[in-house]
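Students often ask why inverse folding is considered easier than folding. One informal answer: many sequences map to the same fold, so there is more than one right answer. In these notes we will look at a single instance of the problem. The structure comes first.
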């Protein structure tokens, strides 16, 4: 299996399993789910990226489609804000993408210390032509809050294919520079026998953007991913460690072709890369489908979409650094079939005790078939031994959301918040809250 453009779009064509589910021994002590937003298309549709929170506890996110500024329907996506007043949450659309130079179909969002929002769209930007779609290869944007209450957009960079296409993640370094990944292109090599989105080859790019006094930010391509055993294909996000090294997870590539983790270390002459882990060996999972998180000890955590004993329905892993550049993998949890969840495509989240939270896009049902259930929110309780114990905070059944693929945020109030791209009253997705 190789990457293709359909992997990045919301999974909105799957049949929903809408049924009341019986609680099991996996259930944990959460008070239940509260749906904060039912999207209806005009104010967004299909939220797939992780939510973020500001210092005041306000929530921000993007929807992959929806809004009224783009043709044809269902729109090119929005950036939204949720504000709580006396326990009641109100949604405000901060920006609606038009599909032109301002971008189309947002995929990620982060926030700086001053409250500015930064994100990516996989299309738009106006630099298309033969390399991408006619509307462009995607952009990096910033939204700045104004005194008037508006959030004007500034496009920081427009991709054209040779420099990357389909940007899908961002992160700040300690100097305030932006780093990110693109899912595709970069040029210089074919990728998996012509499976790239654009015509230039290349399997994705790791890039840096530095602020300038005016105009677009300065772009530097740190690494172009290639279709070779010592590299990866289709980067899915990045994370920094305390020393400034970058870790990137890729959905394909590596020595086995089933996904990889690469380390990038800055030096006097640039960045050097090292393949530190290849998936698909000894049953440790295949197709890692989300980014990584890191703890204070430098341990990396993530998920794979498939494989893992005994049922092959995905897993949660930990990668720990050792002496002489060696890394040790521990399997924190293998998903079964399927009451406990199936196919995690999520960026994990920590709580203060080091427990992990995430979502699965399927599973949670009580039948014998792995297609049962519309997904779960799960918790892995930190343990000195492996695997870590799993409990479920909620099982999705369709009416309360379905197929959650975005990461969770543990807000200052101690509640979990997340999104589901389908389900809800209009079947256009929801924002939900879980109260412990």
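Output (designed amino acids):
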């Amino acid at each position: 299996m190789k990457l293709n453009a359909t992997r990045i779009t919301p999974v909105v064509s799957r049949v929903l399993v809408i049924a009341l589910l019986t609680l099991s021994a996996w259930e944990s002590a959460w008070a239940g789910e509260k749906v904060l937003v039912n999207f209806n298309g005009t104010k967004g549709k299909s939220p797939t990226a992780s939510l973020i929170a500001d210092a005041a506890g306000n929530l921000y996110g993007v929807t992959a489609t929806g809004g009224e500024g783009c043709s044809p329907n269902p729109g090119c996506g929005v950036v939204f804000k949720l504000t709580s007043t006396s326990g009641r949450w109100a949604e405000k659309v901060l920006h609606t993408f038009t599909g032109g130079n301002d971008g189309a179909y947002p995929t990620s969002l982060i926030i700086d210390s001053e409250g500015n929002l930064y994100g990516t769209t996989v299309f738009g930007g106006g630099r298309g032509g033969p390399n991408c779609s006619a509307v462009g290869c995607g952009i990096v944007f910033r939204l700045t809050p104004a005194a008037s209450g508006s959030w004007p957009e500034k496009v920081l960079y427009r991709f054209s294919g040779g420099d990357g296409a389909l940007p899908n993640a961002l992160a700040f370094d300690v100097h305030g520079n932006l780093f990110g990944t693109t899912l595709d292109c970069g040029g210089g090599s074919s990728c998996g026998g012509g499976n790239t989105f654009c015509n230039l080859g290349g399997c994705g790019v790791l890039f840096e953007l530095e602020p300038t006094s005016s105009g677009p930010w300065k772009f530097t391509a740190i690494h172009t991913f290639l279709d070779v055993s010592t590299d990866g294909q289709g980067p899915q996000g990045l994370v920094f460690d305390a020393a400034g090294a970058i870790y990137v997870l890729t959905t394909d590539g590596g020595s086995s072709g089933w996904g990889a983790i690469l380390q990038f270390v800055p030096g006097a002459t640039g960045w050097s890369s090292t393949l530190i882990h290849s998936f698909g060996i000894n049953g440790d999972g295949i197709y890692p489908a989300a980014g990584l998180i890191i703890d204070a000890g430098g341990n990396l955590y993530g998920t794979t979409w498939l494989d893992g004993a005994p049922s092959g329905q995905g897993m949660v892993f930990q990668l720990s650094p050792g002496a002489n550049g060696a890394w040790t993998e521990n399997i924190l949890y293998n998903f079964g079939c399927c009451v406990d969840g199936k196919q995690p495509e999520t960026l994990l989240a920590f709580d203060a005790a080091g427990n992990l939270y995430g979502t699965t896009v399927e599973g949670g049902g009580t039948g014998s078939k792995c297609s049962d259930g519309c997904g779960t929110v799960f918790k892995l309780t930190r343990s000195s031994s492996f695997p870590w114990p799993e409990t479920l905070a909620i099982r999705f059944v369709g009416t309360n959301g379905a197929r959650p693929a975005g990461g969770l945020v543990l807000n200052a109030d101690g509640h979990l918040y997340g999104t589901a791209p389908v389900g809800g009253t209009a079947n256009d997705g929801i924002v939900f809250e879980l109260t412990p």
